[in-house]
Amino acid sequence: xxxxxxxxxxxxxxxxxxxxxxxxxxxxxxxxxxxxxxxxxxxxxxxxxxxxxxxxxxxxxxxxxxxxxxxxxxxxxxxxxxxxxxxxxxxxxxxxxxxxxxxxxxxxxxxxxxxxxxxxxxxxxxxxxxxxxxxxxxxxxxxxxxxxxxxxxxxxxxxxxxxxxxxxxxxxxxxxxxxxxxxxxxxxxxxxxxxxxxxxxxxxxxxxxxxxxxxxxxxxxxxxxxxxxxxxxxxxxxxxxxxxxxxxxxxxxxxxxxxxxxxxxxxxxxxxxxxxxxxxxxxxxxxxxxxxxxxxxxxxxxxxxxxxxxxxxxxxxxxxxxxxxxxxxxxxxxxxxxxxxxxxxxxxxxxxxxxxxxxxxxxxxxxx
Length: 368
Known about the structure:
Elements: E1 4-6, E2 14-18, H1 22-31, E3 36-41, E4 45-47, H2 52-57, H3 62-65, E5 66-68, H4 69-72, E6 77-80, E7 83-86, E8 90-93, E9 98-100, E10 103-106, H5 118-134, E11 137-141, H6 145-157, E12 162-167, H7 178-190, E13 194-197, E14 212-214, E15 220-222, E16 225-228, E17 268-270, H8 283-301, E18 319-323, E19 327-331, E20 336-339, H9 340-345, H10 352-358
Protein name: Oxidoreductase
InterPro entries: FAD/NAD-bd_sf, FAD/NAD-binding_dom
Domain FAD/NAD(P)-binding: 13-289
């Protein structure tokens, strides 16, 4: 069938991974030679999420950050479809397939509408780039890490553009300390980005093709191009009608124990942003979830008992927000810093080479 690629699956217990994002891709790669792994994802590729904004201003950059699942997942079964139901023994996909499991891993993250095929995703980056290049003024709604980094990328690469960032909070990057927020604000202002705090825009009442926007403070913003960088909902609404419906908290996140298993289940794990662990939802944290869950699954697949399972501890805040190509603002447990040093940590390559290497791929070259 078109949506199934047989990649020489292993023998033994059946492990099904739902979601091929940061956490799902890593655990599928980690387990593919230890069990019969099936990875189910609505798209044929894994995309490094923290590199996506660079791809909007430099489409060629996305060629390394948009990775076909089959490139790193070489010894399992890939099903390119959405999952619509889970029972105690099977996973049902939107195209009518039933995939049996002995162990299940849910890593669906947040809802993002992206193309199914890699080539179409790369075309979308090119279209975003053309839109930015053609615009004389750009409006960004949302002052979290996505909005701040996008403003930084555009300001660094297109200094002739008038960039306005509107954020309803009293400061940028509210999930980290005020010192880091102030440093990010000062940097954006130094690049002539017009930052409007404690204001919002009613996105539900915008006429298609409009270039005039009015904030909640009645300020008018003229912009040829609009980017909405507000938070996306957790991709868990479909779970409500499954056997895991009672395992969701009030935010729609799966309740997990210290071993990354869904509470009350011995053979179902959840990793990444969909979990209810109280910590910042970040890519490197999702990868740590995947490594702990992979270790525990290898133990269980080899007949090990619960007493030897590895435990996961919530991670302290460690944030690096890229500001263009050279600078960044970073907050670690005991310090906040900004400039070239944190920029060297993240901004130059956005950890793309490191992530590709973790998946067993050449960090720099892409051959298609």
